[in-house]
Amino acid sequence: MNDFQLHPRLDADTHHLSDLPLCRVCLMDDMRFPWLILVPRRADISEVHELSADDQTQLWREATSLGHGMKDALGGDKLNIATLGNQVPQLHIHVILRRRDDAAWPAPVWGFGERQPYDADSLAEMRDQLLMLVNTLPDGPK
Question: Which ranges carry the HIT domain (predicted)?
Fold first, then answer.
């Protein structure tokens, strides 16, 4: 039995988009950066090495497929994929599309300036774009 629950901080800071075979896909509520959070739907996991070998492979497949698709569909100069977990212990992967003209370039996005939450129209537009991308992945939504 899998008792997966999204950490309250991730739940508060993101918008749920979809579920892939392994991960819940969430959009970070900061319209300055196209920024997804992938959370393996496994209970009590804080580190990649705690996942099975198959889940580790699937995690990387989902992160890189989404990142590649974001870069192609939304246009970007660099793709950042990272795990940190210093503030949220639940394992999660940041997939962030960077542009040379974004607010933080070339510095990391973490802790840079004030978050700019999506307004309803911008959220709907970004959600539509990303869901179209998610739905075209070989390992699409579950």
Answer: 36-105
